[in-house]
Amino acid sequence: MPYANGPLHLGHLLESIQTDIWVRFQNQSGNECLFFCADDTHGTPVMLKAKELDISPESLVKNVQKDHINTYDLYNINFTNFHTTHSDENKKYSEEIYKSSKEDNLISKKVVNQYFDTEEGIFLSDRFIKGECPKCSSEDQYGDGCEKCGATYNSKDLINPVSVLSNSTPELRDSEHIFFDLPKKRKMLEGFLKKADIQTSVKNKLNEWMDDLRPWDISRDAPYFGFEIPNEKNKYFYVWLDAPIGYIASLANWASNNSKDINEYWSDKSDYEIVHFIGKDIAYFHCLFWPAILDSSNFKKPDSVYVHGFLTINGEKMSKSKGTGITTEDFAKHCDPELLRYYLASKLNDKVEDVDLNIEDLSQRINSDLVGKYLNIASRSSTFIEKNKGLLSSEVDKTLLKNIKNAADEIRHFYDSRQYSKAVRLIMDMADHTNKYINDKKPWKLSNNEAAEVATTATNAFRLITIYLSPILPKLTFEAFKLLGLDNQDYSNINDDLVSIKINKYEPLLQRMEALTIEQFKNEEINMSNDENSNDVNTININQFMETDLRVAKIVNAEDIEDADKLIKLTLSVGDIGTKTVFAGIKSAYKKEDLLNKMVILVNNLAARKMKFGVSEGMVLASSDDKGGIFLISPDKGAKEGQKVK
Asked: What backbone phi and psi angles, to 5 degrees, belong to 366?
């Protein structure tokens, strides 16, 4: 479920496109497959985003939901129901599941030390604390888990924690919290992992985590945007408790609107399979927490959890500063959204691997496969069918069509197992064989009747390939079927042949795609930042900039710090302001003796940060590159200590 604090980016679409293709294939194959999702709406980030925009959290999530639905429609994501976790249904089922857990003696209370931001006056959720991972020492990791090594931990275990909200060092305060006894569910979870369809690599990691199960903190203190816990004061369900229940709530909302019984679909006696598609960063929550809280209710646990990797752009993580943080809206300005579906499908498999969107390769793949191979069949055949008064021949070449029909089971297997790249390769092989068939038969040298038979055979091959491609390209294949005078077809139509009928005159369904470059999307960002009406919340006005007090400073002393691999202690002279101490992570690039008397730029009004080595009273500015280089920013000659930068 996408989080409801902003618009969707292309990374969100990797998952929704993968799932949508699978759902369309299942329904095309005769299975009833229902597709549910919702916006994940609760938690501190939504509350703070609403505060930033000066609107209520309820207004924010309502506006974001509309935006998300419009984006999914643009990319042909065909949900059975797209709901919100901030709903009556979700509140109802969250409270019911919590009550069932209490009745099973899985709920307890205890006083915990929790980080509190004294400047913002708020207890900090895990995602608003950063520091060094206690397991692998990676820097800049969140308070609930490490993105580098995959470890989960308590935020108190972080090394050198910092509040993301104020950049200050938070303090620990006592607060009574409510816990779910996850260790009591270990035996059940072991059985669940053996039975559930989850990739082996993910299961191995989950089994490692099973050795460190702890009671799970399911409450958060006010202020918090979410559902209040029944019979508790100023306590709210932690977002990760009610978020997955949003799947059930979305189904319940659809069932109510369509006179259906939810128990038919998601009770422990249901014949339906429950399948999740998720990103690799949330496997712990979906494969351990989620089945554990479901086990105390009458809801069925998932049958399958399919985990995928992240989307990279031109081999890099998505980053706005590098021009690879491409929004779904910007992408659609330069490329038909359906073509992204095909490109991602050509790379997706059943493994937990990152998928790279190479902007320059995109147009080449579309032009080569869809224009040069697939649609080329219909284009070449149309000439000879038109000479035959638009009529297909009464005969076809059974050999070519038999080979394509015989591939149906293999293609179905690839779709069902999410090996879309293999399906695409096999389908394009058939397109190649069909084009070779036309070349070998040379219909331009044959009589009209003979040429019509070749063209009819190729047209039937085109129809079969269209059936195979339809889960990936629903809009394009719909137009292709219309060209043949057909409604959408599925695997029940595989053995049919189109003969002795009139088809529509061929009209190009897709033009060759102009080459794209990453620079076009960088320019898009520049244009947005120059737009007076831009809604980019990352831009600031001149008054906001002037609130940052930048000062020229001179390094008058530099000391190495024992037990700190990256930090150097700097003593800065700041003119009339006096001296300030700053701990700077520049040891990999500078020796202490080379820093004496160097002029730098100091962020003078940054909140002081208490570290185990002392108090850091600001920050010096530096730039960096992808190779790990660090470059201190210095003023021009003539600048004096203490001067304000503006």
From this structure: -65, -45
Q: Domain limits at 170?
A: 108-180
Q: Are 103 and 296 in contact (CB under 8 A)?
A: yes
Q: Is residue 522 part of a domain?
A: no
Q: Name the H helices within 104-236.
A: 186-195, 200-210
Q: How far is CA 283 from the centre of its chain?
A: 13
Interval 638-643 mean pLDDT: 93
SS3 string, 135-166, reads CCCCCCEECCECCCCCCECCHHHCEEEEECCC
Tell me, what CATH number does 487's domain have?
1.10.730.10
Task: Work out how many domains the chain is built from and give that number.
Answer: 4
- Evaluate whether 185 touches 292 at the Cβ level (below 8 Å): yes
What is the reported pTM? 0.78
* pLDDT surpassing 70 at residue 628: no
First to last CA, the chain: 43
What is the per-residue pLDDT across 188-206, written as a single tens digit (0 to 9) for each?
Answer: 999 999 999 999 999 999 9
Interhelix angle 337-345/10-28, rounded to 10 degrees, is 80
403/474 same-domain check: yes
What would the pLDDT profile of 521-530 be if each residue is shown by its tens digit? 766 654 444 4
- Per-residue confidence (pLDDT) for residue 325, from 0 to 100: 76
Question: CA 463, 468, 474: angle at the middle one, nearest 5?
Answer: 90
